[in-house]
Design goal:
Elements: E1 2-7, E2 12-20, E3 25-34, H1 36-40, H2 47-69, E4 78-84, H3 88-104, E5 109-113, H4 114-125, E6 133-138, E7 143-150, E8 153-159, H5 165-175, H6 183-190, H7 215-230, H8 237-263, E9 267-271, H9 278-291, E10 294-296, H10 307-319
Parallel strand pairs: 1-4, 4-5, 6-9, 9-10
Antiparallel strand pairs: 1-2, 2-3, 6-7, 7-8
Helix pairs in contact: 2-3, 4-10, 5-7, 5-8, 6-8, 8-9
The protein binds 5'-O-[(R)-(carboxyoxy)(hydroxy)phosphoryl]adenosine and zinc ion.
């Protein structure tokens, strides 16, 4: 079946058409309009500005997605939309647009959780992949370890107490002079640095809890750079990036290893914007190989927010009987 999906939870407006079935998982179109340039001058996403930017382009992006898929609404079997978690004003734009489109065209409307969508991005790259598995979703807004027992059976077993991993990357990047969002820039800079140059605090809390705290690490990097600047000392930016990255990778890998012990999972999915990080992909991939656990991660292009991942999860929600009526609302928090 063909699913038209709309995503507007943060700073990307996206519409996609995916063709999903028992043996089919293909992306017919996946248009992403990024607002990064708009938010860059503020050093981060400004929620109201994001909502306004979504409303300006959601209809055009959707028409483009249908056009590229060679379909009109006649050929669409269901409309999927992200309705949580995210920036409320941003989510409302996508939800209201999808609702109007679905009901005016007589199509079923399927609400999708954004975090589930990140996980579902992996289905589009691995046609044989199916639950159960362990999933790590690390993005600008979320850091969760999830025991995925079925396509719509998600149990969060680890989370961050404060900042998300991506937020820490962006703040550390900012103090190093890398423009927002700095994750990809930090990734490149870390290639030239010594990961053992500076000992930063670990964002992994006590092992048993599988909890993270990224705020201490973020503050440590900011203090390190500001103190050096105040003393007029030269800092090696690449060493800071590499040491920060090592602290993140070690913490995530260690908690994932514990979570694998706890769940006995045989497969692990690494997803979300931060999953694009080459050092993290390598560290988690190596850990899985050593343990004989299957490692799956979407290509970098599918790690960030996009409509196709929402369409993929939308299919499984649809198959599980999930439907929304005209009262569908958006929610800032997760389930
Ligand atoms: O999943 P995503 O596109 O949006 C949210 O749902 O938040 O994630 C965006 C986050 C940003 O913080 C960005 O800096 C980070 O993902 N990111 C990276 C990399 N590419 C994007 N972080 C580390 N390394 C990267 N290569
Ligand atoms: Zn996301």
């Amino acid at each position: 079946m063909n699913i038209l999906a709309i995503e507007s939870s943060c700073d990307e407006t996206s519409a996609a058409v995916v063709s999903m079935g028992e043996r089919e998982r293909s992306v017919l179109s996946n248009i992403v309009a990024s607002q990064i340039e708009i938010h860059r001058r503020f050093g981060g996403v400004v929620p109201e500005v994001a909502g306004r930017a979504h409303i300006e382009c959601v209809a055009r992006i959707t028409a483009e997605a249908l056009g590229e898929a060679g379909l009109d609404m006649e050929g669409v079997d269901a409309v999927a939309v992200t309705n949580r978690p995210g920036l409320i004003g941003a989510l409302l734009v996508g939800v209201n647009f999808a609702k109007s489109l679905a009901f005016s065209c007589g199509k079923p409307l399927v609400p999708v959780d954004h975090i589930r969508g990140h996980v579902a991005a992996a289905y589009l790259s691995y046609p044989e992949l199916e639950p159960p598995f362990l999933a790590m979703v690390a993005s600008g807004g979320h850091t969760s370890i999830i025991d995925v027992r079925g396509y719509t059976d998600f149990r969060e077993i680890g989370r961050t107490r404060d900042d998300a991993a991506g937020e820490a990357f962006d703040k550390a990047a900012r103090v190093l002079g890398i423009p927002y969002p700095g994750g990809a820039g930090m990734d490149r800079l870390a290639n030239d640095g010594n990961p053992n140059a500076i000992k930063f605090p670990s964002p992994a809390m006590a092992k048993e809890t599988l909890e993270f705290s990224f705020s201490g690490l973020k503050t440590a990097v900011i203090n390190h750079v500001n103190t050096a600047n105040m003393k007029g000392l030269e800092i090696n930016r690449a060493d800071v990036a590499a040491s920060f990255t090592k602290a993140v990778c070690t913490a995530i890998t260690s908690h994932l290893s514990t979570a694998l012990d706890m769940t006995g999972a045989e497969r692990l999915i690494l997803a979300g914007g931060v999953a694009a990080n080459s050092h993290l992909r390598r560290a988690v991939g190596d850990m899985c190989r050593e343990r004989g656990v299957g490692f799956y991660t979407p290509p970098v292009s599918m790690c960030g927010d996009n409509g196709a991942m929402i369409g993929a999860q939308g299919y499984y929600e649809y198959m599980a009987g999930v439907r929304a009526d005209t009262s569908l609302n958006a929610f800032a928090s997760g389930e």
